[in-house]
Amino acid sequence: MSESPLRAPARLTIADVARAAGVSRTTVSHALNDRGQVDPRTREKVKQIAQQLGYRPNLRAQRLRTGKANSIALVSSMPFSVAGGPSRLGFMMEIAGSAMEAALRQGLALVLVPPLDAAEALLDELDIDGAVVIEPAAHDRNVTQLQRRGVQVVSIGRQPEGDQALPYIDLQGYETGRILLQHLAEQGALKTALLIGTQPRHSYVDMEQAYRDFAGAREMPVIIVRAEEAGGESAGREACRALLENHLGIDAICAPVDAFAVGVVKEIQARGLRVPEDIRVVTRYDGLRAQSCQPPLTAVNLHLDEISVLAIDLLFEHINGQVKRRVVTGPAPSLVVRASSSTAAGA
Amino acid sequence: MSESPLRAPARLTIADVARAAGVSRTTVSHALNDRGQVDPRTREKVKQIAQQLGYRPNLRAQRLRTGKANSIALVSSMPFSVAGGPSRLGFMMEIAGSAMEAALRQGLALVLVPPLDAAEALLDELDIDGAVVIEPAAHDRNVTQLQRRGVQVVSIGRQPEGDQALPYIDLQGYETGRILLQHLAEQGALKTALLIGTQPRHSYVDMEQAYRDFAGAREMPVIIVRAEEAGGESAGREACRALLENHLGIDAICAPVDAFAVGVVKEIQARGLRVPEDIRVVTRYDGLRAQSCQPPLTAVNLHLDEISVLAIDLLFEHINGQVKRRVVTGPAPSLVVRASSSTAAGA
C-alpha cells in the first residue's frame, strides 16, 4: 500500500467511555456489543454515556476482527473515451446510480473505480468484499487483479473466453443485435453494415453473431468494420469513411458503441448525405450521446436500472456463498426508435 | 455497526511468507515495509516470495495503525425524485463521474452515498477520511451526522445559514440566476415568474436574490412560487398551474429545478399554449432532463467537471490541514440556449 499523507482524526476511545461511566473497558465493550454478563442497568447507562460522548466503535478494529469491509466496488474497463467523455454521463454512471441504491439495501457501500490506468493501484488497495465489473473483455486485467487478491467478482455482461467464467448478468447481446437489425430491415434497409470495437467483449461477439445470422438468412452481404474503442468518436468517423469508400449502396449502419455512432452520423452528414433518408444509423446504449445526437439515435433500452440491482444481488449471494447461480438473465432489451433510423420518428 | 452476513475471504498471512522464505515474521514485515535492519539480499528474496505467493498486506491492520481509510464519500441530500429519477442520470452522477477520477489522482477511493433515508445508517459506518456533500440545505442532517463523527466535510455549493460554515466550492448561484433572467429579457419576456424549491438551499436563496434585484431594476412584478422538491415533476406542474391561474400575462418562467421545469412545460402545453412562443421556460442544470424535454430546455452549464475536481482538491487539503481555504470559486456558469426560450434555437 502506498503511503498517503492523510492524517488520522482524533477519536474517542473505549477508555474514555469507561472512565466517564466508572466501569472497566471490558464492561463497556460487552455492554455496547450486548455480549457477556452485564447488569441491564449498567448496560443502559454505558450505552447512554457512549451516545452522549459521541463515541463510535473503532470501525477498523471491528473490521479487522470480522474480516468484513461492507464495501463493494464498481469497476469499468472501457477506455475513458467511451466510458467517459465530455459529459461524463455514460453507461457506467447510469449503472452506478442504481447500483448504489441496491448496495445500500444490502448494507454495503459502493466504491467507484474509474476507467483509467491509474486505477490499477487502487484495485490493490481497496478494502472491499467484492466487485462488479462492467462488460469485461476476455483476459481483463482488472478481473485478474481482483481475483488474485481473493475478491469475489461478478460481471454485467458475459466475459468472453474467460479462463474461469465469472458469474454474470446476461445482457442478451444477441437479442440486442437482432432487434436492431430487424428494425433496420423494417425501415427499408437492404444493405446494413456493422461497425464494432476490436476488443474481445461479449457485446461485439454477440452482435457480430446476430449480424452474420441475419445477413445469412437474407442473403445480405456481410460488411463488418472494426475500430479501436480508445479512438472514440473520431475512430467511428474514420471507420465510417472506410465503409462508404469501399462499399457501394450501404443504406444502414449498426454501430453499437455510441461514440462510434455519433462519429458515423457526422461523417455521413459531412458527405452531404442525409440521416436517415440516405443512410439509417442505430446504436446500442440509450444514453445522453444517443439522445443528444442530431438527429437523435435509435437505440436499445437495456434496462440498466434492473440489471444493476440483479448484479448487486448476485454479488452479495456469491460473497456469502449462499447460492451458486452462475448466470442471471435480466429483462429483455427493448427498441427505442428515434429519427436516425425512421422518418416517422423524426416528425 | 450492524452485523452483516458477509464472510471473510481466506487470506495469506505474513506467517505464510515467513515460512516460505525461512525467516522470521518480523524480518518479513521489515523487508516488505523497507524498515529495520534487513540484509538487502534477504529483503529482495522476501519481496519476491511474497509476490510469488500473491501475499498482500492486511489492509485493515495497516489502516488500524495509520488511522487512514484512503476513502472519501460523495453525498447527496436532494430527495430521490430530483436527484434520481427514471434514468438515474442526474446532477449527482455527473459530479461522481469526474470526482472519482480526481479522487483517484489523490490516491483516494470514492464511495457513493445515495439520496435515500436508508443512507443514514451507512453514514455512520463508512470508513472514510472525508466527504463532499452536494448542495446541502441549512442544518443538513447528513452534514451534522458526518461532523459528529469527526469526518471532514466540504460542500459543492454554499451551505446557507450553517452554524459552522463548511468550506465550499462556490456554484455562483446569483450569477446563474442573472444570466438566465437576462436571457429571458433579451428574448422579449416582460413578465417572468420564478419557481423554486421550499428548502433552504443556496441555489434557491441566490436565485431569489438575483430575481428580486432583476425585477427591481426593471420595475417588473415579483411573482415567486415554491414547490416541494420531493414532488418532482408533478409538483412543478401544480405550481405552474397556480402561477398561470393567479397571474395574467406571464410570458416566461424560470424554474431552476429541472424536474420542476419539465412539469412546467407539460402544464403550459396541456393548456394549449406554446413553449417558447407564448411562455419561455428556462432551468438551471443542463442534464438529461433538460436535453430530452420537448422542446429542449435552455439551461446553464455549471462546469461540474471542473467543480468536482476543485471539491476533491479542497477536501484533500482540509483533511491534511495543509491550507485553510474556506471558499473556492469555480468557472463562471455559461448559458446554453435551446428551443424552450428561443425560437431561433428551435430552427
From TrEMBL, chains A, B:
SUPFAM superfamilies, sorted: lambda repressor-like DNA-binding domains, Periplasmic binding protein-like I
Domain HTH lacI-type, first and last residues per copy: 12-66
CDD domains on file: HTH_LacI
UniProt keywords, alphabetically: DNA-binding, Repressor, Transcription, Transcription regulation
UniProt cross-references to Gene3D superfamilies, sorted A to Z: 3.40.50.2300, lambda repressor-like DNA-binding domains
Record-linked InterPro entries: HTH_LacI, LacI/GalR-like_sensor, Lambda_DNA-bd_dom_sf, Peripla_BP_I
Pfam family, one: Peripla_BP_3
GO MF terms held by the record: DNA-binding transcription factor activity; transcription cis-regulatory region binding
Keyword Transcription regulation assigned: yes
Domain of life where this protein originates: Bacteria
Protein name, as recorded: LacI family transcriptional regulator
Organism of origin: Marinobacterium aestuarii
